[in-house]
Amino acid sequence: REGWNCERDIDPCDDKHNPCMNGRGSCVRVNSVGAGGLNIFHQLPLSNPRFEDGLYYWNKLPEYAIDGDRTPITDEFIAHSYTDQHPENTFFVDLPSSQTIVDKVIIYPRQHGQFARYRGLAVRIGDSYCSTSLSLDPATIRANKETGIIFQCNSFMGSMITVENDNKSLQIAEIVGHTK
What we know:
The chain contains one helix and eleven strands; from the N terminus they run ββββββββαβββ. With about 180 residues, it is mainly beta. The model is unreliable at about 1-10 and about 15-30 (pLDDT under 50).
């Protein structure tokens, strides 16, 4: 449409609501405009989602964490660890190669309650921990449930993303990795 800028006016990674992609194309997110120009992030393809112990709660498969549905209508379609014990509840997902550079990871939490379960959330690439500027208290998780909890990874290189959660059940609606 006239006056519509696909890189400015919409979330280009939201292929469900993005009239510019029409269900095709690559995902590019414009993060900010600074003195050096645009910071453009590309969504990384993720594969082989799993929990450390190989188990999951009820029918809440690890695959739901990478199915593209960031805000499921119910919590039926989320990845959910079988146990609340660390390290068995640790979640892993593979990156495209062992040399993949990751600049940020976004964790979309379960959408309907249990927001206190994210207090001990940590994300790492290899042995390097990513950081978040958000408090992981229940009110902040609830306020950011649709936009996700963003972890900055500072161009860490690795073959997988690891998500840890102390001694709480780990529940992920979606995990998304980005590189510049």
